[in-house]
Amino acid sequence: MRRFGFEEAEVTRMLSAVGGDDGADASGRAELVARAAWSMLGEPGDRTAGLLVTALGAAMALDLLLDGATPASIAERVDPDAVAGRVALASDIDQALARWRPRLRSGAVVRSFEAAGRCGARLLVPDSALWPEAVDDLGVHAPIALWVRGADDALERLGRSVGLVGARAATSYGEGVAIDSSAGLAARGFAIVSGAAYGIDGMAHRAALATGGTTVAFLAGGVDRLYPAGHHDLLERIARTGAVIAELPCGAEPTKWRFLQRNRLIAAATRATVVLEAGWRSGSLNTAHHAAALGRPVGAVPGPVTSAASAGCHRLIRECDARCVTSVEEMVELFGDADTLAGGGADAAAEGRSSDEIRVIDALSARSMRSPDEIARRSGMSTASVLGVLGMLAMDGAAVRAASGWRKA
Amino acid sequence: MRRFGFEEAEVTRMLSAVGGDDGADASGRAELVARAAWSMLGEPGDRTAGLLVTALGAAMALDLLLDGATPASIAERVDPDAVAGRVALASDIDQALARWRPRLRSGAVVRSFEAAGRCGARLLVPDSALWPEAVDDLGVHAPIALWVRGADDALERLGRSVGLVGARAATSYGEGVAIDSSAGLAARGFAIVSGAAYGIDGMAHRAALATGGTTVAFLAGGVDRLYPAGHHDLLERIARTGAVIAELPCGAEPTKWRFLQRNRLIAAATRATVVLEAGWRSGSLNTAHHAAALGRPVGAVPGPVTSAASAGCHRLIRECDARCVTSVEEMVELFGDADTLAGGGADAAAEGRSSDEIRVIDALSARSMRSPDEIARRSGMSTASVLGVLGMLAMDGAAVRAASGWRKA
Prior knowledge:
The structure is a homodimer. The first copy, chain A, is α/β, with parallel strands linked by helices.
């Protein structure tokens, strides 16, 4: 089978460079390569690309492009019934083809796989086991593929993550808030997601690492171009225990547009976004707006009204209905996570416990029995790890086992 | 005519000690004395006292007490139709009589008038020209009388006032916020109302005085007992250019209950209440709750989340829907005062102008003509002063005169 001009051997070589094909069949493998190709054809959030890939599959959509199919014929395949809407769609596709054609070079795809292989990046697509499903809430604006450097565990923990963002121009107050918030949420078993920028973002990542927590950075360029340069070592550390993720392929440069689109990924991948310190026009307000548009909770930490560095947080509270949050407990409340808060909650349970124990306790209910598999799913841990921790908790008297499963003591 | 055991000559003597009878007839004079008597019978906010005085008039209600009327017969006079409700009302009155009887001493009334005369206090009742009508929104909990030391002008300006309150335990940040807020609002022609406590309240009064603005203090005890003692000189200064007001007669001590009830007067007398800095359990939150219960706008100024002194403000924003306000402009927006904000507004108009000029400019409309009387009513100034200021503004080109009145240039 040939796709995008590639021999099967070359497909195998490319995929093995980025962690293999996850056991996919020939058509799954073609889809993987085609999604990788699409991830460099359109800019992030390209609605028309999202539509075609969703409706036709990435490989089929790419073949139509390569075969020189007309916009009208592509539109007819996307939606054979909607005659009226099809004219508008054909017009969108016509404009999109003009954007995509200059990038339709198979050599670039090969090079991006090679660069990914060199830096140890993997390719994820929506069928991948580790794909962060929450980003699919972006609909036609969802990423087509994700390039990832990092641990499986960190990707699993995205299901229980918080976006902590803020301005580059941080004050010592803002940095203190970032350290306390990130360390406190990490200690409660939340993965800390941010954008690796100087200032607040960097401090959020660092505090999570310092407390042994999980942290994930979404980048605006390729994961082989760690940006900003001054955070190269920090990002290498994040990639070792957490994850560094981009929707653009390796080699891609960060641009202003890509930073704004990267913000939508932080908002979508997490359960809530909290802006820790931000000036009136900080880019972190953009992340908050994406989160609000997705219906995700948004929190903002207030600061002195005499500090311009807090004006953006106050603006979010005043104009955008962001919740005023002043402590880690109030950030956890953002999710309305009944299980996390039940029974006096996080604080009491967190005393002297490892973060794995806290995560298993959080995943237990005081009322209903849950199976180890269910607890594994909720905690974002493996079933084997969960069983080990449950054994420890049972000895402590913190968890109770019955025939039908486990519950909080 | 004899009321409460007083000869007419004694009534005349008492009333002349507190600024005369405002030209009232005999029944109006009796009502004045009776309201003064009621102001020491019940504690502030006594619902049953408010009901009887509203339904029967203060003099009639007092005569029934003095004549030893039964609770049932008083209830029947209050509401002859509502047979069912009357039993509950009679029971209320029965309990109230037990509270009031120990205080039913005509000597105390005489002494309170004498004390008021000595400190230059006047007696206001709802019929008085200078009565702050906004407090009537308290319904049966409205004050029955007010004892006032201060300028007519200050009482008139209560119609355009803001309550600025906060904790005694203020930080330098909170004091700075109080100074900026009070001075800024005073410069925009707002009277600054507060409770004369140490900390935020005192700073709000001082900043208003320092900028030549009007400030009004509501006290929990009598206006002859300036409390707290350390603010004696401050309160004397407020009484000279602004006003010091209490609903309890001279000689009354401030008590915890009276402080809480005093807070409802600050909330009711003003167009909005702003909490500038307050800890988690600050009494100023009580003022904010009263304002919210009255449907008055409530603002709270955020501060560092690391400062316990701002925890009450954040609590108001989080739990009580208080508006997060970070500047004088945002405080003015609380009122939704279209005229104040119209045409680029307060800031531009305030440059290099006296506070009287600013108040007249605020009272002018750019669209519609207004008469000097109307401008006097809106600005809380006398018509004579308004005409003087309008002359100045016309020379500056800031105000335009036409046959039908004046408008903003």
